[in-house]
């Protein structure tokens, strides 16, 4: 089982990169953001633990998590945020580990916007950073319809700065060009990861 951690700032091209490797080479992708949503779905123990601690008003009428209400509580109170994280982080880690363990592709991508910040890099044998200039990052992140400038700023504030992220990278893809340029770099890295995965 060979794991490549894939990270980058908001709008850097993580999804563009992982979609390409998945579609072109059948590489399996474990997406930490998706896992984080799955572990608080109805019927999951983490959702029960959240409701037990924060009160059942944190659930919507249909029993699903009221994310907006929870966000409001933990945004204003770091102690409550830590309690929330003490519930969610172990569940996320366990779910990631399980998904990685059942992957059957020659190597598996662990895509996480907070790979280094969350400690999830520890699952990976190598870390790939998708890097983009700040100007292009803003352009690409803000042309998507569902994020405001304020949200982009908040997300960037929670992420490592670009220099720090680059320092921790084993491999770097520069996503300042068109998609063909991104794919070209990924083609080379794919060959490298295939070789590394059999060693
Ligand atoms: P997030 O952290 O917000 O999930 P991300 O790192 O996954 O973002 P993507 O969603 O892959 O980034 O890319 C951001 C936007 O930029 C998307 O609309 C994507 O189609 C576009 N994009 C990515 N790479 C390129 C490129 N090389 N040329 C043109 N557009 C690109």
Describe the structure.
The structure is a single chain. With 199 residues, this protein is of the alpha/beta class. The protein is 54% helix and 12% strand. The chain contains nine helices and five strands, in the order βαβααααββαααβα. Strands 2-3-1-4-5 form a five-stranded parallel β-sheet, with helices on both faces. Adenosine-5'-triphosphate binds next to helix 1 and helix 9.
Give the SSE layout.
Elements (H helix, E strand, L loop, with lengths): L2 E5 L6 H12 L2 E4 H7 L6 H10 L12 H10 L1 H24 L6 E4 L14 E6 L2 H9 L6 H10 L3 H6 L3 E4 L4 H20 L1
Parallel strand pairs: 1-3, 1-4, 2-3, 4-5
Helix pairs in contact: 1-9, 4-5
Bound molecules: adenosine-5'-triphosphate.
Question: Nutshell version of this structure?
Answer:
The protein contains nine helices and five strands.
First-residue to last-residue Cα separation: 11 Å
Query: What profile does the largest beta sheet have?
Result: 5 strands, parallel
Q: Strand tally, please?
A: 5
Bound heterogens, unique: adenosine-5'-triphosphate
| Count of runs of 4 or more consecutive helical residues | 9
Spans with pLDDT under 50 lasting ≥5 residues?
A: none
Structural class: alpha/beta
Helix content: 40-55%
Q: How are the strands of the largest sheet arranged?
A: 2-3-1-4-5
How much beta, percentage-wise?
5-15%
**What is the overall pLDDT average?**
95
State Rg: 18 Å
Using the alpha-carbon principal axes, give the shape.
globular
């Amino acid at each position: 089982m060979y794991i490549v951690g894939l990270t980058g700032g908001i709008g850097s091209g993580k999804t563009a990169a992982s979609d390409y490797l998945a579609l072109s080479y059948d590489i399996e992708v474990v997406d930490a953001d998706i896992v984080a949503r799955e572990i608080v779905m109805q019927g999951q123990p983490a959702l029960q633990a959240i409701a037990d601690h924060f009160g059942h008003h944190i659930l919507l009428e249909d029993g699903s998590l009221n994310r907006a209400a929870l966000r409001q509580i933990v945004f204003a109170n770091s102690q409550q945020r830590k309690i929330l994280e003490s519930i969610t982080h172990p569940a996320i880690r366990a779910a990631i580990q399980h998904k990685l363990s059942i992957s059957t592709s020659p190597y598996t991508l662990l895509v996480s916007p907070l790979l280094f910040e969350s400690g999830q890099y520890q699952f990976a044998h190598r870390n790939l950073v998708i890097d983009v200039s700040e100007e292009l990052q803003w352009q690409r992140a803000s042309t998507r319809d569902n994020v405001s400038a304020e949200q982009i700023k908040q997300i960037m504030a929670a992420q490592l700065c670009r220099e720090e992220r680059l320092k921790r990278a084993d491999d770097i893809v520069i996503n300042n060009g068109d998609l063909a340029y991104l794919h070209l770099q990924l083609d080379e890295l794919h060959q490298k990861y295939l070789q590394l995965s059999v060693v």
